[in-house]
Amino acid sequence: MDVHAGTFDPNEFAWRGLTMTASAAEHIRQLVSKQPGIQGLRLGVKQTGCAGFGYVLDTVNEPQKDDLLFETDGARLWVPLQAMPFIDGTEVDYVREGLNQIFKFHNPKAQHECGCGESFGVQAE
């Protein structure tokens, strides 16, 4: 039996991409309009929390060379190529929860979330 273990190269995949709701796009455009030099947001992931991974949002002055750009109605969202295996297909929303307004991530790759909703886990394919 020949077992071949290859390496993972995110450049070799056809990504479905990320989408933004109208509410998320509007909020990103508002953030950009209030901060000179900001081009949009970057959505990444980091290992954290009780479920494994957490979302990280940062402002973007200058995109990184390996960032993928997703744009909706003039709102720009960059994603590091290395994060795509964990968040490909995610819809980014901006919602009101009680007195707070927050970004919500509807990620089809998330197999489970922690109780507080701050982290998620993915199942290896």
From TrEMBL:
Domain of life: Bacteria
Molecular-function annotations in GO: 2 iron, 2 sulfur cluster binding
Domain Core: 18-118
PROSITE patterns: HESB
InterPro entries: ATAP, ATAP_core_dom, Fe-S_cluster_asmbl/transfer, FeS_cluster_insertion_CS, HesB-like_dom_sf, SufA_proteobacteria
Gene Ontology CC: one annotated term: cytosol
Biological-process GO terms, alphabetical: iron-sulfur cluster assembly
Keywords: Iron
Entries under Pfam families matching the protein: Fe-S_biosyn (PF01521)
Membership in a protein family: Belongs to the HesB/IscA family.
NCBIfam families recorded: iron-sulfur cluster assembly accessory protein, PRK09504.1, sufA_proteo
Listed name of the protein: Fe-S cluster assembly scaffold SufA
Species this protein is from: Superficieibacter electus
Lineage: Bacteria, Pseudomonadati, Pseudomonadota, Gammaproteobacteria, Enterobacterales
